Amino acid sequence: MSTALVKEVGDKKTATESTTSLNSDGVSPLGVPLEEKRFWFQRGKEFDHESIATQPSVFDDPKTAEQYQPRDDWENLHRFDPKARWTWAEEYALIRKIDWRITIWACVMFMALELDRANITQALTDNFLTDLNMTTNDYNLGNTVFKLSFLLAELPSQLVSKWMGPDRWIPSQLVLWSIVAGGQFWLSGRTSFLVTRALLGVLQGGFIPDVILYLSYFYKHHELSIRLGFFWTMMSVADIVSALLGAGLLHMRGVLDYAGWRWLFLLEALVTLIVGLFSFVLMPAGPCQTANWFRGKKGWFTAREETIIVNRVLREDPSKSDMHNRQPITPKLLWKCLKDYDLWPLYILGLVFQIPATPEQQYLTLSLRQMKFDTFTSNLLSIPWTAIHIFSMLALTFAAEIFGELTLISMVGQIWILPFLIYLNVADTANASRWVIWAVTTLLLGYPSAHPIQVGWNSRNSNTVRARTVSAACYNMFVQAGGIISSNIYRADDAPLYRRGNKQLLAILIMNIALYCLTKLYYVLRNRSRDRKWNAMTAEQKLEYLSTTTDEGNKRLDFRFEH
Questions:
Q1: pLDDT value for 354
Q2: What angle do CA 533, 536, 550 make, to 5 degrees?
Q3: 209: closest CA among 294, 110, 138?
Q4: Which of 50, 259, 264, 367 is the most buried (most CB within 10 A)?
């Protein structure tokens, strides 16, 4: 959340002054406004870890604090304390603890998701299509059915999660889809393939925005973006693990007279089932609800740590207390979120930003087999691009937070892909060395994805739990819609060089660069418009606005969009 009030407070005080009238009551002064050293490499020897970390917020002025108070039924209300102060040493130690307890397991769950939705690419190298009497167009249709089902399930799943709580719904999803994934062992043809693809999409849809909303309970915005970078890194790690497992498990072809790809589906689904069962006891409902029989009677966090978690997050974004974690979204609230036009630029980016690289990724192992690489080599050659992608994506995510620039940094991935797509369009790929084609494709697929940045960006610009719940699902729905488009660009009548498809990808890429520039312009102009209105008010008028306004979320005049 970016509020004009907090910025005004931060601009007027120095490191040694209190930004709150509460100081006269004996409360310690606040920390240095807006000068947080976010990353370890930014903290030199002069950085004092024992200095106050508590940052200025709207809760420091009694006149504005009343307008942002948490609701009475908020689950963490008992730990809300505007007078609480803590040091950077306490905060950084606590963040590491949250990373260990919460984020690592979220990453494990995401790896389980990726194993079960991406192992189809390994199955392709083991005569999967031939065994089921299918063509590449059938494979495209299966990808389309999966992504369409995934897309349609996003919003309903998010609404169920908000009603049940993500700590109950996410583990249930894992267990249910692991059963379907294991059932692929008994695939018999095109129909059963399409049915299982649809069921997997329905059961996995919503998982990602569910986890993102869950993580937002524990982290500030910039911290969430970095954790999402590692979150999507685990998807790439899962792809590497899947390739290695595939290289081994596919050698089971002939065991009990079954194909290797059948064992691949069954055994990897068993891993997901185990992760799902453990998730029921390893996912607390929130920072103040960690105690249970498995996690200990006292829970994971002390009362002091719970106070720090709750207040540090609310000081940055008071909107995170406007709904409790078991409160369902009503149809009226749902419609209000869906028609929030200020988030549509991000939805449009979500639709198109991955398209230029997705067809090459989906067809990589199949293309390697067509270039006469054997099954084992094809799986191993699918690993290098994933390793490059891990480091490039993390570097891009850190860069966005270090430089405070979301739009232009996100656009870097599109510029990365451009020269490689141009090569695929102008080179004589029919006569080029298969190693050259592999190298170009590997470098193209190693592009720095802006996905973690854009998911966190969408969360920041939502500005209420209600909007964040729906917008996370909507954004991912557009991403899946982009996947549907991607799955139908490379067609059988364009094989094996896909010249028509590559021209389409290049055109979309150029369009994407223009869209990023237009998104930047849109948010700059929106903020300027609000600045004019807000700065024209007197201090008394601003307080009157905060007391009486019916504007909500990112429609408030004191909210500024991140870009």
A1: 92
A2: 45
A3: 110
A4: 264
